[in-house]
Amino acid sequence: MYTILLVVYALLSWFPGGYDSAIGRFLRRICEPYLSLFDHLNLSLGPINFNIAFAIIVLQLAVQALTRIIVAIF
What we know:
Blueprint: H1 2-11, H2 22-35, E1 44-45, E2 48-49, H3 51-73
Antiparallel strand pairs: 1-2
């Protein structure tokens, strides 16, 4: 679910004023604390910023690791 929120947050950058809408403000409060962990990496290639893509990959790897740990315990 959080991955979907991150994707929607990234897509809002395509719309002028997307982050200023009610949905944009909500997603900013939810997503920016996690995304701020990756700000120091500076994963930009020209005008394209890959921080959100990297954050999604890290999130998915963490979910897979936790799933394997939980399955191994039970």
